[in-house]
## 1
Amino acid sequence: MTNHPVHMHGYEFKVSCTDGGWVDPAAAWDEVSIDCAVGQMRAFDFVADEPGDWAIHCHKSHHTMNAMGHSVKTYIGVTKKDLVSRIRKAAPGYMPMGSNGMGEMGSMEMELPKNTLPMMTGYSQFGPVEMGGMFSVVKVREGLAKTDYADPGHYKHPEGTVAYEYKGQKLAEAPRVEGPKPNPELATWQVKDPRKPRLGPDGKPLPGAKAGGAHSNH
């Protein structure tokens, strides 16, 4: 492992200290991620005025390619009943996954050594957390004392601010607008012979153009 690009959700902050010392407040710069090399330190300040449970984690590329992958196919909302019966004929015990996201993977725990921090588990108020061992949580609450380091528990979201599955009437699909279809009969093709000089709009050779290319050794 080399550097750690540390990213924090919910806030913009100011980098206030580096290995070279404290940064002049007038020179502090705004960030949402800080890149720390091996042995480096960075300190940042922010005004805790947005209550919530905010994730702070590493934006290393191998994390985004694994559990935070965005380039894999999604099966959210897909019913696999017919597919499961076919696959189990070839692979008994096959378990369909992904119809409700991959959060269920966080609950599939295997025994680990006692001094091991699991990377793909953990539970929160909404169920298992896929990235449970790969991030920390900054808990911001109103009215906390300066010396109060007790766990305030899960953040209580204001009513109407939490996403939920819509189970009402099916929404109408947006109308599709199709543009004009290409007409292959109108397409024109021009084949250029690289051995001949380039021609201008008037059909005459361009100044300095040589047969066989623009370089004298061609």
## 2
Amino acid sequence: FELIDDLCPWNAGRWRASLTREGAEVEKLTSGEPELSMTANTLAMLAFGQITATQAADFGRLGVHDGASLPRWDAAFKTRYAPYCADNF
């Protein structure tokens, strides 16, 4: 995926997320085309369960370069219980 972050430019770029039952790994890429493009705000909304990737695409918050990736992204952020952040950042 491509992350757009004007506030923290060191976060911007293309990334690969690999997910397993044991956890996740994220690595920065130097080449290749992203499946999706999004801002850091949209990534946070996905991570905290505010919207799904499909909803983000429908709302225009997600650039979709590979439509087949949306179901995978929806599944990746689906949890049994809603995420909670006590810090309210």
